[in-house]
Amino acid sequence: MYKIITVYGKMLLAALGRTLVLALFGLFFACIIGLIFGLLSVVKNKVCNILAHIFVDVIRGVPMIVLAFFVYFGIPYLFNNILGFTGVSLSALQAGTICLALNCGAYMSEIIRAGIQSVDAGQMEAARSLGLSYWKAMSLVVLPQAIRTMIPSIINQFIITLKDTSILSVIGFPELVNTAKNVQANTFLSFQTWLIVGVMYLVVIMILSKTAKLVERRMNRGRRMQ
């Protein structure tokens, strides 16, 4: 174990950094996707509702490893061989970000939908009665209140997304698990290598979990004071 830490420690820390960056990229774009489909799921329009449900059901129904292979290999094939484009390819980082954004975005959509629906319907009615349009009332009145209830769930979703990055080792992205495989191949120390990687994940996830609980306690305290 000492050999792994001294010789490969910097490599593993760099891989952990890439893992966190990938998870942040994925969560950032997932929030955008989730906001779009979350709003589509709550508007009073059946077509929008159906589109949102189809997106959520399809993405959540496909295993992430299949989605990763489809994005990494399938999308370039689609553009190059079917749509007539040439030279279209995706790097492991680009494919990984798209895969995480889609997968996490489906769950974020449900988080946002639930957050919006947790706000009393009278808030929207009061805003509309003051002359605000639906979308202004949603962005200025409903969403700010909904975000407060969504923050702990968003942090928890980030934790899940962080763990899901390990699946992207199958497309060659040099995240922590992929790097650990190389370390194991070089040292033949399986137990020690995966023990170190497990501890690295555990430390990061414990910090994020404590943060989520702290935020949730402060928000609950704020509600009681109101």
H/E element order: HHHHHHHH
Quote the beta fraction.
under 5%
Question: Which architecture of the domain at 18-174 would the CATH scheme give at its second level?
Answer: Orthogonal Bundle
The CATH superfamily name of the domain at 18-174 is MetI-like
Subunit arrangement of the protein:
single chain
Overall morphology: flat
Tally the helices: what do you get? 8
Find the CATH topology of the domain at 18-174.
MetI-like fold
Q: Mean of the pLDDT scores?
A: 88
Count the E strands. 0
Structure summarized in a few sentences:
The protein is 85% helix and 0% strand.
How would you describe this protein?
The radius of gyration is 21 Å and the shape is flat. The protein is 85% helix and 0% strand. The protein contains eight helices and no strands. The chain has 226 residues and is mainly alpha-helical. The model has no long low-confidence stretch (mean pLDDT 88).
